[in-house]
Amino acid sequence: MSSPLLLFVIVGKNEPLYEAEFNKSGSLSSDSATRQNYFVLHSALDLVEKAAWTTTNMYLKVVDKVNQQQVSTFLTAGNIKFMLLHSGRSEDSIRNFFNDVYELYVKLSMNPFYRYDTPITAKSFDTRVRQVARRYLS
Questions:
Q1: Which tens digit of pLDDT belongs to each residue from 34-69?
Q2: 1: in domain
Q3: Is residue 114 assigned to a domain?
Q4: How far apart are CA 93 and CA 90, in angstroms?
């Protein structure tokens, strides 16, 4: 059995803007497991849209459950979706993770060299997201 995988994706209006996998053991997951995880996140997008109409909160909590995996989502004011696939984490740690990543995203979006709703390629952003994940999701 493989170690728990966490998959974090930032989804823009039409495409994924950022993707990161966090694996506790540091080993890579198999291709089929990775494809399945992306499929689970992709299939949850409609549920995110539906959940967004039922609350004014940015943190939508768990919007989908598949097998032992859950999809938690945070929706920004600009309709950018932060989605985390996990196997059951505390709600407080996930909320804190999303809030810290949102702060990083807001700082990135204020950068004059970043165009809104385009893929995020900044290495510094990736490094900081991974630090936040280690702090809250390990």
A1: 777 888 888 898 888 888 888 889 999 888 888 888
A2: no
A3: yes
A4: 5
